[in-house]
Design brief:
With about 425 residues, this protein is α+β, with helices and mostly antiparallel strands. It has helices at about 15-35, 45-55, 60-65, 85-90, 135-155, 170-185, 190-200, 210-215, 230-245, 290, 305-315, 335-350, 365-375, 385-390, 410-415; strands spanning about 35-40, 45, 65-70, 75-80, 100-110, 125-130, 160-165, 250, 265-270, 280-285, 300-305, 330-335, 355-360, 380-385, 390-395, 400-405. The protein is built from 15 helices and 16 strands. Bound molecules: adenosine-5'-triphosphate (ATP) and magnesium ion.
Length: about 425
């Protein structure tokens, strides 16, 4: 019996891999330009890291984690997101003792037991960046700017940046109370999930996907009206920085990150182009996370960006998605001597950095050219006794069905010049 890919996972096959290579190399490039260095962390971590770093009251920890006991009896979890592992590595490596801030990026698989649908998988991939150590809103603006600039480079149009402030440990308790007071008379009408959020994480109720709950919270008080002076000043500074950077944004008081260690800035890049899963990138400030995970009292800010959703969106936008890695030349041959000649010529081309391919199945000429076609080779040459004798090759443009004579010694130059 055939074994299928696990539900909610997707293979990337060679015919599409070039798109992934493209976004990955552009991602590395922009991160280097903005001064972020790569951090690579394990696929699995101690479960406790996410209980603390993502939060016991979140959907991720409550119902989406891939958690199991390893053979040594430890509770292990496949990483559902990239921030907590990056924070853990920052602490583990004692990087916090160096000059700050520490600016890192990652490109990682994430694992969440979710209901699979378009743009929502159980194994998906994220780009992310984090700035550890900077409390100034210039850091938040830099993070948002990198996100906006990357999406611009990826040819994304019709995307909105929504920003909000979720306050801090000083002002949020007051707001929380106001929100609970508002919700208490409506408690019985809330969905079961939101009932359980009422005490532990009431801000998440604003974010509930159920329409009934959305109607109930339509006139709920908003954090933005309860900000303390420090948070208000910070939010104004962020907007001033975004203006200076020429970045458009919408103040959206409904973006929430209900957890205690999320502070001040919260933001999302949202689009309606790819259906319900329209949040391509989400992030914010987490001034108490590093401490929560066992490090020093240090601020942080960052975002995560879903690669699958990015690729869906690029496709919808008709964006440039990289160059296919198809052969530039297919070297066909007729006869035994020509086979060895073709082998050497193919190697010579490859050594010179040209994508070259030849048949390794002993096909007849017709079969070789069929193969060249199906590989989408740009040019083909056919080596026979004449070509070996006079060193003159016929280079055929496969798509245009035109051909030119080229000396063997000039073949590499010829292909490169095209
Ligand atoms: P959503 O509200 O869509 O569930 P989230 O708040 O869970 O998103 P984050 O944890 O902020 O998402 O992750 C950052 C980004 O990762 C998202 O904006 C999205 O692009 C992507 N992402 C999150 N979950 C998935 C998933 N299951 N499949 C594919 N991409 C995902
Ligand atoms: Mg989610």
């Amino acid at each position: 019996m055939a074994i299928n890919a696990p539900k909610g996972t997707k293979d990337v096959m060679p015919k599409d891999a070039y798109k992934w290579h493209y976004i990955e190399s552009e991602w590395r490039k922009i991160c280097a330009e903005y001064g972020f260095g790569e951090v690579r962390t394990p696929v699995f971590e101690a479960t406790e890291l996410f209980n603390r770093g993502v939060g016991e009251t979140t959907d991720i920890v409550q119902k989406e984690m891939y958690t199991f006991k390893d053979l040594g009896g430890r509770s292990i979890t496949l990483k559902p997101e990239g921030t907590s592992p990056a924070v853990r590595a920052f602490i583990d490596s004692k990087q916090f003792a160096e000059i700050q801030p520490t600016k890192v990026y990652y490109d990682t698989g994430c694992y969440r037991y979710e209901k699979p649908q378009e743009g929502r998988l159980r194994e998906f991939h994220q780009f992310g960046i984090e700035n550890f150590g900077a409390s100034n809103m210039l850091a938040d603006a830099e993070i948002i700017d990198l996100g906006a600039e990357f999406l611009r480079r990826m040819g994304i149009t019709d995307i909105e940046l929504h920003i909000n402030s979720v306050g801090c440990r000083k002002c949020r308790p007051l707001y929380r109370k106001a929100l609970q007071d508002f919700l208490r008379p409506k408690y019985d009408c809330l969905c079961d999930t939101c009932k359980s959020r009422f005490t532990t994480n009431p801000m998440r109720i604003l974010d509930c996907k159920s329409q009934e709950d959305q109607d109930l919270v339509k006139d709920a008080p908003l954090m933005i009206d309860y900000l303390c002076d420090e948070c208000r000043t910070a939010f104004e500074a962020l907007q001033k920085h975004l203006d200076a950077l020429g970045i458009d944004y919408i103040v959206d008081p409904r973006i929430v990150r209900g957890l205690d260690y999320y502070t001040k800035t919260a933001f999302e890049f949202v689009t309606t182009k790819i259906g319900a899963q329209g949040t391509v990138c989400g992030g914010g400030r987490y001034d108490h996370l590093i401490e929560e995970v066992g490090g020093p009292d240090m601020p942080g800010v960052g975002f995560g960006l879903g690669k699958e959703r990015l690729l869906l969106l690029m496709d919808k936008c008709g964006s440039f998605m990289g160059t296919k890695e198809n052969p530039q030349v297919f070297v066909a041959f007729v006869g035994d001597a020509a086979q060895e000649y073709a082998l050497a010529l193919t190697k010579e081309l490859r050594t010179a950095g040209v994508r070259a391919e030849m048949d390794t199945q002993g096909r007849k000429l017709k079969g070789q050219l069929k193969l060249a076609n199906s590989l989408d080779a740009v040019y083909s040459v056919v080596i026979g006794d004449d070509e070996i004798a006079n060193g003159e090759l016929t280079v055929r443009n496969m798509a245009e069905s035109t051909q030119e004579k080229v000396q063997r010694g000039s073949l590499i130059e010829y292909i490169r010049s095209k």
